[in-house]
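Today's session is about reading a structure prediction critically. Students often jump straight to the picture, but the first step is always the sequence itself: look for stretches that repeat, for charged clusters, for runs of hydrophobic residues. Only then move on to the predicted structure, which in these notes is written as discrete structure tokens rather than atom positions. Here is the chain we will use throughout the hour.
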Amino acid sequence: METQPLPVEITKGRKEILLERYLEIRKFTLEICNPLESEDYVVQPIVDVSPPKWHLAHSTWFFEEMLLKKIKAYKAFNPDYGYLFNSYYESIGGGERVLRPERGRMTRPTVAKIIDYRHHVDKYMHEFLLNELSFEVMDLVELGLQHEQQHQELLVTDIKYIFGHNPLFPVYIKSKLEQIEARELGWLHVEGGLYDVGYSGSEFCFDNELSRHKSYIEPFKAMDRLVTAGEYLEFIEDGGYSEFQWWLSEGWDWVKTNKILAPLYWHKVDGKWHHYTMYGFIHVNAQEPVTHISYFEADAFSQWKNMRLLNENEWEVLTSTYGNLSNDGFVDRRNYHPGVAKGNNQLLGFCWEWTQSAYLPYPGFQKKKGAVGEYNGKFMINQMVLRGGSCATSMSHIRTTYRNFFHPHLRWQFTGIRLAETI
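Below is the predicted structure for this chain, in token form.
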């Protein structure tokens, strides 16, 4: 890759950090897969869930395609991998790729060959990161690392979906979840006024977090923790899934068509609710946050409570004021389940929070040229914004300005609910 060398005193610190992060992040991806058997790597039960093997290869392809292939002396591991493991980039390889619903058909290359692919790319990336690099190239490396952290979260949630729909409900983590009571519900207050929202700083952010702009917010109050499973169970027992008045029209159609009766992974056995977790099939703990909820369910619950969800600007202001970044709610602790609220407001980590906001560009948003420009902008239609991260998110990956987005019916991510009221 053609780069403009920079003085060592300028680049040395960042380069060292990038290399350390590269090795650490790539290692953790493989750690997530340690409990898997060979057969687990290939399964694709629904279109939204990719086989774990595909995640291992695609996150590797990103570094090879975006960085290593720009080096004249580099030889691709396998010329077919650009076709097999391109996700959605139309500007690469003429857009030719295996379509998302077909990923589960790829029994070959084998898992062992994909691991060889990762080692091959890691070797050359290690050498690459020892060279003098421009700021532009280092930014691209950081994007690749952030991209892999996104796929680590997808790996966790995709593995859970694969195991959670296996008749044997395989255990991913052989330990018991902590059984404690959530603290009493309190309220966080935000005064009305004109606030700045969007990313401001010199560190990494995605393009959809820009540009920083002003937003007027009416005074409101919001729950100081996430809605618990016990609170959501009251909605179920009150006939929440059988009363149309709580639901958006499209949501009500979704409930009837799919015969939805409870959150994803919930099953009623002998009159009691159980759910699949990464720790096995266990009783629902009423003290934990309810999770694996669609936007439709989150909105219906808020209507039933005569309250509402936050919009994303309100959430950002609330979290900038009250957020507590501790590793209790993130994957860094290797806790693959959202824990009970103790001293934390659960604004960062635990569960992604559905907001009322449609996923749209901020004022001044500019889509970058080339493949990098396909990362976020082209998805700004028919999706809702989620904020805050989850128990499958890494601490180094989240920010108060981070905008996640999914279609409103999806719920295989660790998604939850926080309610608010305008004052």
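Discussion point for the tutorial: DSSP finds nine helices and 13 strands in the chain.
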